[in-house]
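Please decode residue identities from the backbone states below.
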């Protein structure tokens, strides 16, 4: 039995609609799957960044302790006046070592953040405060590194030169961090005022470091909270 034109039109029209909607639905699900996959990659990247921040927190807290000890030693050395009193020689040597050797070098892990930016996944972050705060965080790291560099590059050489001429390594003395030999002051004279002033200048940069790292730790806590909200949202 042959179908008339109207029946053929209805038949092929239905077939066309079935094929059309089938392709449309297929494309839709492919798009949704691709979006879900990218969302998964973004969340995995943010989770790694969060983990890096937690590792940095431990390093920052240790580094702050080191810088605080350096400041305390410098201020104690600045006021020290018992050079000829033997019972205070250990204290003097401790101040000397910490004021000279206590410094840090920040080694941060920016690989995951760079990958997040370069892949374009950063654009999928709904809370733009996270993007802004991460940008500020790694800019702040550059400044913190510069403060460390000033301490090591600009403040330390003249002091180290004086110490190398007026101290000796005490091989039988206290080991700092389990490996570093302590120093023993060998001069009969008081540390010159210009060296003490140089040390006090150095202390100000240690204090700057402490201030900026404290600020960074507070920012990091906020970033972690916002990342948690981002990756656990429905």
């Amino acid at each position: 039995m042959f179908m008339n034109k109207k029946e053929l039109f209805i038949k092929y029209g239905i077939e066309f609609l079935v094929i059309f909607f089938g392709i449309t639905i297929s494309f839709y699900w492919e798009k949704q799957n691709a979006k879900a996959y990218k969302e998964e990659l973004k969340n995995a990247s943010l989770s790694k960044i969060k983990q890096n921040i937690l590792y940095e927190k431990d390093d920052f807290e240790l580094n702050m302790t080191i810088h605080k000890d350096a400041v305390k030693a410098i201020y104690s050395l600045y006021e020290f006046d018992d050079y000829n009193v033997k019972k205070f020689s250990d204290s003097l040597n401790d101040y000397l070592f910490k004021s000279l050797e206590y410094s840090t070098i920040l080694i941060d892990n920016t690989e995951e953040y760079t990958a997040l930016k370069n892949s374009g996944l950063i654009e999928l972050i709904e809370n733009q405060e996270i993007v802004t705060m991460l940008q500020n965080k790694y800019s702040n790291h550059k400044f913190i590194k510069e403060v460390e560099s000033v301490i090591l590059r600009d403040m330390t050489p003249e002091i180290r030169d004086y110490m190398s001429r007026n101290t000796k390594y005490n091989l039988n003395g206290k080991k700092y961090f389990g490996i570093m030999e302590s120093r023993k002051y060998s001069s009969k004279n008081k540390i010159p005022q210009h060296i003490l002033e140089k040390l006090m200048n150095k202390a100000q940069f240690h204090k700057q470091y402490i201030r900026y790292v404290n600020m960074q730790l507070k920012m990091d806590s906020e970033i972690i909270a916002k990342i948690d909200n981002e990756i656990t949202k429905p």
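Observation: The chain has five helices and two strands.
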